[in-house]
Amino acid sequence: MKALRERPTRGRVTIDDVAELAGVSAATVSRVVNGHPDVSPGTRAEVLRLAQELGYVTNRGASAETAQKRPQLVALATSSIYGEHMTEIVAGAADALRDRNVHLVICSLDVDSSQSLRDGLLQGTTGGALLVSPPHTSAELHGLRRTGYPFVVIEPTMPVDEGIPAVTVSNWAGAKAATEHLIGLGHIHIGVITGPRQWRTQADRLAGYQAALLGAGLPLAPKLVHEAGFSLAGGREAGEALLALPNPPSAIVAMDDTLAVGVLQAAHQRKMQVPRDVSVSGFGDTQMASVTQPPLTTVQQPLQGLGRVAAGMLWRLLQGQQLDAPRMELATTLVVRESTGRPRGTSFLTM
Predict the structure, then answer these.
(1) Is the model's pLDDT at 179 over the cut of 90?
(2) Cis bond upstream, residue 294 (ω within 30)
């Protein structure tokens, strides 16, 4: 940045005067004096120093007050805006920000687009962002962080470094609890269906399932593990593959409610009764879980809680505050319904 050379001799100091001496654009000066957070700390400090020294802040103090009265915009960015999962997160975030005069702008994260992450968040219009399961690496997120733009990640898709603010649920513990529930009912031959395992959430849930089996002294059988896309068809196909095994599992843990409903469809197609012939559990406790036949045992995620907690963290960042804990994990709860029961006969695990 340029050092202060001399005070302008004109009667009124302009934004261009501050910008020229600071070596930045007038737009950057405007963002600083109007309280926008998307400016690096070093640039912000220098602009404020020069503005005060020139008398610009004193002359323009009313602009900061006006800016405080205007609604602030933050981005809620995701690769998919559809589905109950996203609706609940948006509701929680909007509720947390409503009384703080902050409004959400929905943005699309398209990893296949040539548009940069920064541009996709409408940086310059939005003051910060909630990134829901962003398909970006830690390096890309660190690049965004270095610009001074505040953000919080909700349910990271990729592993993220500890320094990146993030909120998730106890995926490992939730899947472990669901599997232990089935073991407690007497099941020892338990299949599992995950979403794409490169997703951090799905890898953690699979690890929870495996931990429950090992904790009960049961071996891990690779043939009982299937991966599917997050759809009814994916769950149905994976469920059909498991139920068609020579020695099919007496219970199936699906790591998503949609996958679990697909398993119910596969069982129905084979004229199998749930839970008499096979027990099924899900993950999510979406609305469909309570209206299936039979109602679905599942792991309840605090989806609105994810939105509220992440929005609260972002608000602190917008105020220039430090986070006491940049990583938050919210507890899950197992909800037991009629889709799980004791196995009809003795099951033997075959590798």
Answers:
(1) yes
(2) yes
